[in-house]
Design brief:
It contains three helices and no strands. The protein has 99 residues and is mainly alpha-helical. It is elongated and about 50 Å long.
Length: 99
């Protein structure tokens, strides 16, 4: 049950990041700098959510203790690492372009 609640919390981070980005887009009137800021806000939400999703998967793995659960955790953790590195790279690239 705790894993489901943690996973739901991660989903809320994605939704919050998207809502913040949408608000920033409206306020910026879709300028280039505003779009870059929106992309960064969505990326921040996704990065935060990935931590929650990983924690939930770890809790599920601890509960189940099967090889399938362990392999599932390893795959999700590897995917999380790749996505997070890409988003950090993208954030760095966008910040260096906007200055």
């Amino acid at each position: 049950m705790a894993a489901v609640l943690i996973e739901f919390g991660g989903s809320l981070f994605v939704v919050a990041g998207c809502m913040r980005a949408l608000g920033a887009l409206v306020l910026s009137r879709a300028t280039h700098a505003g779009i870059v800021r929106c992309r960064l806000l969505v990326a921040d939400g996704v990065i935060a959510a990935l931590g929650f999703k990983t924690a939930a998967t770890l809790l599920k793995t601890i509960e189940l203790q099967t090889w399938n659960a362990i392999l599932s955790f390893a795959a999700i953790f590897a995917l999380r690492t790749v996505v997070k590195r890409f988003l950090v790279w993208e954030e760095h690239r966008l910040r260096s372009r906007s200055t």
